Amino acid sequence: MMQVFPDQGALLGLDFGTKRLGIAISTSDQSIASPLENYNRVNTDADAKAIQKLANDYQIQGIVVGLPVHMSGDEGGKAAEARAFGDWVGEVTGLPVAYFDERYTSSLADVYLQHGQLSDKKRKANRDKIAAQIMLQNFLDSDDRWQAPGPIDERGSLQFKE
Hints:
Helices cover 39% and strands 19% of the residues.
């Protein structure tokens, strides 16, 4: 049985990385995304507990995982890793997972942070959660939330977990 992706309730946006996750959260009406934190990955058990705690603490209703795609819109190895990670997150939280195009989000985060007159160390420390915020806000603002810009694949950008 497929879960329906919620149109109300807070969403968690995850900027996937093998060493660190950028994490953003939406308002419960899904209109505004805010950076939440960066999480330095430890191991499968610790990562699962941390994500479950966030989902519980913030009453998360769905998770949006950034999908790194090539400029052409084609998916490569990193996109497959992000999808596998998203599938795993859906399993450990029991929440529906959407995938959304994250092209340019890290570059945009860099531009925003450069204007903030922060040190290089502080810019680096904030980059991933700002990238997650940008990706999640793009998802929230999308006219068609269920398709990422560009030809992702025949499945579209959204998969649901049972």
